[in-house]
Known about the structure:
By secondary structure, this protein is mainly alpha-helical. It has 15 helices and two strands. A two-stranded antiparallel ribbon has the order 1-2. The longest helix is centred in the C-terminal third of the chain and has 27 residues, at about 225-255. The chain is globular. The two termini are about 40 Å apart. The model is unreliable at about 1-5, about 10-15 and about 20-25 (pLDDT under 50).
Amino acid sequence: xxxxxxxxxxxxxxxxxxxxxxxxxxxxxxxxxxxxxxxxxxxxxxxxxxxxxxxxxxxxxxxxxxxxxxxxxxxxxxxxxxxxxxxxxxxxxxxxxxxxxxxxxxxxxxxxxxxxxxxxxxxxxxxxxxxxxxxxxxxxxxxxxxxxxxxxxxxxxxxxxxxxxxxxxxxxxxxxxxxxxxxxxxxxxxxxxxxxxxxxxxxxxxxxxxxxxxxxxxxxxxxxxxxxxxxxxxxxxxxxxxxxxxxxxxxxxxxxxxxxxxxxxxxxxxxxxxxxxxxxxxxxxxxxxxxxxxxxxxxxxxxxxxxxxxxxxxxxxxxxxxxxxxxxxxxxxxxxxxxxxx
Length: 342
């Protein structure tokens, strides 16, 4: 005799979907863990140094994390569609030098400096995309080559030293040191970029197609998605955002920097994207988690600096966090260990 199933009441269903459960589902376990880690880092360094949680230091953390945040956001996009860009730090260096040199070469025209940097960023991004798509080169290898090539290009253009001086221009001063509603302009640019990319990923056909490409490129191709066009466009987008980051670097430092300030940004961006929940195989990730990871990395880096801990440990911490993020992803996805049976 078969057992009968008692219909579930509305009250029972509502009990299961309590506000706490719904909130947890909307935030996501990955993001919730990042929030917890961020709170722990802020509390720890706030306890060790009373000035750590001051408004002025929090602004320093936010400003320092802006350039990394911009790159991490576009790194999230390219990882979602199954790619990777290791050359973003070098792209920032090229854009920084180009913006400063164009500025000083045109009688201090800030508009020309910004336009030249963005143009260089688009060109570099398109070149990366074309090499990957039509040269059939693995994205990691192609952009690893770009990391070296664009760093060399920035040094060739600048003769290996800082170029120009932009702190006599109101626009660059506004970008690097200005505030709107008590918040630094740089942070506003980061937030606007984050909102724009989030809307694109979550609420447009473009975003859905990017997730489809990263999730299963064969199925995406059979569905009629022009994968080549999307990949070239994504790498061009990276070039544009890297150019904006380069202009902000110029505005912060007062001159075009071929290497200083841009070296190592690629590791930070990839680490933030991975910590934020991006699956390095593609098809999964979001801007919210990436921003939380950027905040966590910024808070940790600033705390180590405030406490006078050797800056080399920051690189150790970043590398360890990247490995930890990938290990967690592999375990969650049920991936077997290399060389071991399932």
